[in-house]
Amino acid sequence: MAETTPRSVRTHRLGSPIAAIALVVFYAALLMLPLVLAATTGERETEPFLKMLGMSFALVAMVILALQVMLAARIKAICEHYGLDMLLRFHRSMAVLAVVLLVAHPILLALSSGSWRLITGLQQSWPIWFGKIALLLLLIVAVTSLWRRQLLNFEAWHKVHGLAPAILLLGFVHSWVVGDDLEGTPMRVLWLVLLGASLVVYSLHMFVWPALRRSKLWNVASVKQETHNVWTLEFEPPEGVEPLHYAPGQFSFLRLYRGDERHDGEEHHFTISSSPLQARTHICTIKNSGDFTSTIGATEPGDTATIQGPYGRFSYTVHAPSSKYLFIAGGIGITPLMGMLRHMRDSEADVDVTLLYANDTQADIVFREELDEIAESDAPRLKVVHVLAKEDWDGPIGHVNRTHIAQATAEELPDYAIYVCGPPAMMRRVIRTVLRMGAREDRLYSERFWL
Ligand SMILES: Cc1cc2nc3c(=O)[nH]c(=O)nc-3n(C[C@H](O)[C@H](O)[C@H](O)COP(=O)(O)OP(=O)(O)OC[C@H]3O[C@@H](n4cnc5c(N)ncnc54)[C@H](O)[C@@H]3O)c2cc1C
Question: Is there an atom of ligand 1 within 6 Å of 337 CB?
Answer without folding.
Answer: no
